[in-house]
Amino acid sequence: MKNFSILVVDDDEDFLKGIIRNLKKKFTTIKIIGELSGESAVKILEQNKIGVMLSDLSMPGMSGHELLLKGIELNPHLCVVMITGHATIENAVKALKMGAWDFITKPVERDSLYHTVEKAIEHYTLASENQRLQKILNSLSADQSLNWESKIMKQLKEKISAVAVTDYTVLITGESGSGKEYIAGAIHKLSKREKESCHTLNCPAIPEQLLESELFGHVKGAFTGAERTREGFFMAADKGTLILDEIGDISPSIQAKLLKFLQDKEVKPVGSSTLKKTDVRIIALTNQELEQKILDHSFRKDLYYRLNVLSIRVPPLRERKDDIPMLVREFILKTCGEMDMEPMEIDPFALAYLARQPWPGNVRELLNYVRRLAVFSNGKTIDLALINLVEGKLDKAPLPNGHTLYKDAKREVLDIFSKNYLTNLFEHTRGNISETSRTSGLERASIQKIIKRLNIDMSQFRRLTNPK
């Protein structure tokens, strides 16, 4: 059963029963509810999860317009289809301006009814999915946000939760763009310091001669340009968390001072002889192999062990490809919000293509790629044609000419992708349909249909099994 119901409202009981009977024949997995008045329909809306509502415009008591406004008030994602006679189409147009999704006219043709309701269901489902993704996106910066799909990231989630409840120093390692800073922020939000401040300092972005002042602070007149006393990040983050990004790039002199701080939890501002106690948790991030830097004497071993009380490795995106579909949808939603656009859909073939890419720049690269797709999109769907445009591949494949109908051109582009995708996969599976199905996520029947439609010669792959 679908997790929502369809509500039909009309004061003509015979007409209402006829609509419900037709809808039940077509939409067998969705509960259909009928009501004879707007007042009783409001109670249904309050007590049930209604996704689509079909309502007569002209009813005694509460009118269709009033029911429309009340329904949207109760559920902003409710998809409302108004039912009207030809003589009141003007009122139906008014309803559209008030928030109705579509309208149908009496007498209602069955095919028109089915088509309109199917589209309404799709619209509601998409709106609900976008709402779900928005909640995920909002919660990505909150304490229980780590909703990943891959096994490796679910294990990481458990590790983050365990680390967060302690107050020990943490060393987070991982490639550039893999999400180390986000993980550090999640640890802070899950910790007992959640309500205190969390500061991030990008160490290599600050010149060495200024980094000490940024960390420890300085007093007025400590050096040229020090016109006033300034507290450093260690004091600013007192009772909270300080995230030190790219810790592997700090100089030996700063390493020595940081080691001293981690031992004593005391700060001596530049130019001062006074020590100040501070209670700050340190989370250090690096994309470098600190063990190797210890061997070549560019990083202190004792500092490494002070930082590495607890350690977390953030895997690169290529090791957790199961998370890519979720990330893509989140980034689409995020990007559309940034650009003040309506949320876009993504074609399943396009999503499959993105999920198979190596993404050497990791999550950051994927986010920027999705942003490019959104910028160059002129519609509401991200598909392979758009990906080819963004990647500049349109001139590298035999594509339709400009006189071809859009839907035909799009189908040909998808056929090119489908053939290349399956051909590459068949080379690895030696033409094994079952293995190809497991790897691609496509049903066996779907693969066989594509093989037949695109006339793919399977013998060339099966010969690889027993080469002569």
Secondary-structure topology with pairs:
Blueprint: E1 5-9, H1 13-26, E2 31-35, H2 38-47, E3 50-56, H3 64-74, E4 79-85, H4 89-98, E5 102-106, H5 110-139, H6 151-164, E6 170-173, H7 180-190, E7 198-202, H8 208-216, H9 233-236, E8 241-245, H10 252-264, E9 266-267, E10 276-277, E11 281-286, H11 290-295, H12 301-307, E12 310-313, H13 324-338, E13 345-346, H14 348-355, H15 362-376, E14 381-382, H16 384-391, H17 406-429, H18 433-440, H19 444-454, H20 459-462
Parallel strand pairs: 1-2, 1-3, 3-4, 4-5, 6-11, 6-12, 7-8, 8-11, 13-14
Antiparallel strand pairs: 9-10
Radius of gyration: 30 Å
Q: How many domains would you count in the coordinates? A: 3
Task: Report the β-strand fraction as a percent range.
Answer: 5-15%
The major β-sheet equals: 5 strands, parallel
Helix content class: 40-55%
Classify the fold: give the CATH topology of the largest domain: Rossmann fold
Q: Tell me the strand order in the biggest sheet.
A: 2-1-3-4-5
N/C terminus separation: 53 Å
Mean pLDDT: 85
Q: How many β-strand runs?
A: 14
Low-confidence stretches: 135-145, 394-401, 464-468
Question: What is the CATH class of the largest domain?
Answer: Alpha Beta
Q: What CATH architecture label of the largest domain applies?
A: 3-Layer(aba) Sandwich
| Class per helix and strand makeup | alpha/beta
Under CATH, the homologous superfamily of the largest domain reads P-loop containing nucleotide triphosphate hydrolases
Which geometry do the CA atoms define? extended
